[in-house]
Amino acid sequence: MNQEIQITKLPSQLQQQQELPREDGATEEDHASSQDQRQQDQRHHQATAQGGGAAAGHHHRRSNKLTLLPLVFLIYFEVAGGPYGSERAVRAAGPLFTLLGFLVFPFAWGVPESLVTAELSAALPGNGGFVIWADRAFGPLAGSLLGTWKYLSCVINIAAYPALVADYLGRAVPAVAGPGRTRTGTVVGMTLLLSFLNYTGLSIVGWGAVALGLVSLAPFVLMTGIAVPKVRPRRWAAQVEGRKDWRLFFNTLFWNLNYWDSASTMAGEVERPERTFPRALAVAVLIIAASYLLPLMAATGATAAPPEEWANGYLVDAAGIIGGAWLKYWIQAGAVLSSVGMFEAQLSSGAYQLLGMAELGLLPAVFARRATRFRTPWVAIAASTAVTLAVSFLGFDDVVATANFLYSLGTLLEFAAFLWLRARVPDLKRPYRVPLPLPALAAMCAVPSAFLAYVCVVAGWRVFALAGALTALGVGWHGAMRLCRSKKWLRFNTAVVAAAADDHQGEDDDGDRV
């Protein structure tokens, strides 16, 4: 982690990637089969060179690379950001099931996805993350479709945070709580302001995430300590009135603990990702599990409120009961800071995903444009902000369910790409390798995959319809991009790095290439 990836290391790394066998299926229009494979090789070479090693080309300084601590807190805000938003799980199934869920789920779900992310981010460290993995395994259509699912899930998820902030602020400023101009202005103003902050640079966002994380976690540490003598374990067994709402429970649980792979889209901006990513993910799993479980144990055990009172924002009231008004207002402020951190981390992830897809030639080259001063992908940031604003006023539950559904589809494809690459490209250089044989890896992925399938099955008809329409839009978008590329209606990133072309000269034509 203590030294930057140097541009001089790229040729051997890229040559290693190019010398690997791959399967058929990744073809480009108007080219013969061997030319198709060369073009895909060149796209991967270029994506890695521009994303993972473009420090020289883009004049990135060492200070602009993400190191371990900023990456830990970016992952923390990608996934969690604190226990805010977890209250509905208590309302849906009661304290006991909520505590069990937040005890088991970070490990049963977070650890497998973290291991997959660590291995593939180290092996293929360009901007774009999981898009590169699917493209490498199954070809451009799979990469484009996975990118569509994950990107839409990301920006729909981002839209929930300004609304969540408004919910918490509404407890102090009633005009923000209900529909109206005040709430609308709060949501829109916050979205635009935070998007501009994202424009100022990923390093600033990363260290900002560290500061936001420490400040927003501190009151929960205090609340947990103060609550210890007040906890009555029997309160953890309180039951909800009527039937448990398992769909709301699992959607809330999943929404609070997914997006472990999102930081992979910024792998090209991370210092020594092959070492930094595995370490950062391991630390983040422990922090995230503790940040949910301990405050929820304290709040449910030290207050007598029935599950029906646990709506978004109740943790603020619980803090007031446990520690007094000063702690209540600190946690209320922490909710705003946490939402800011989550917004920034996930907007960065979505923007760098678009940049990576542009570097792969899956999107027009305009999405790869960087700001002259800050070197941030300003077009991708602006596009993500526009989409976020467009969906900001959907209902909170619809936002959560749709984001979960699209994320589930994308993650199932991501697991398939991971297993496919391990089985069919075993010689791919993996600086970090999950120390399990293929059958054990399949079993590891089966547990979270079963949960992903459940999330998809229990989604309501509106979520099915919306996700289906968005998936069709993704397939249509890929076809439109192919047409625009073939007709040269838009400019795509199809430049070939000379070193990559030289490496292909004289290679045997038998067998497919990566």
H/E element order: HHHHHHHHHHHHHHHHHHH
Structural Rg: 23 Å
The chain-level mean pLDDT equals: 81
Shape designation? globular
Query: CA-to-CA gap between the ends?
Result: 28 Å
Question: Which band does the percent of strand residues land in?
Answer: under 5%
Count of helical regions: 19
Main sheet characteristics = none
Q: Which consecutive residue ranges, at least 5 long each, have pLDDT under 50?
A: 1-41, 45-62, 496-514
Helix content: 55-70%
Key terms:
19 helices; 0% strand; 514 residues; mainly alpha; disordered N terminus
Helix and strand arrangement:
Blueprint: H1 10-18, H2 33-51, H3 68-79, H4 87-93, H5 95-123, H6 130-138, H7 140-169, H8 174-177, H9 181-199, H10 202-227, H11 246-256, H12 273-302, H13 314-323, H14 325-359, H15 378-390, H16 396-424, H17 438-457, H18 461-487, H19 498-504
Helix pairs in contact: 1-2, 1-19, 3-10, 3-12, 3-14, 4-5, 4-11, 5-12, 5-17, 6-7, 6-16, 7-9, 7-14, 7-15, 7-16, 7-18, 9-14, 9-15, 10-12, 10-14, 11-16, 12-13, 13-14, 14-15, 16-17, 16-18
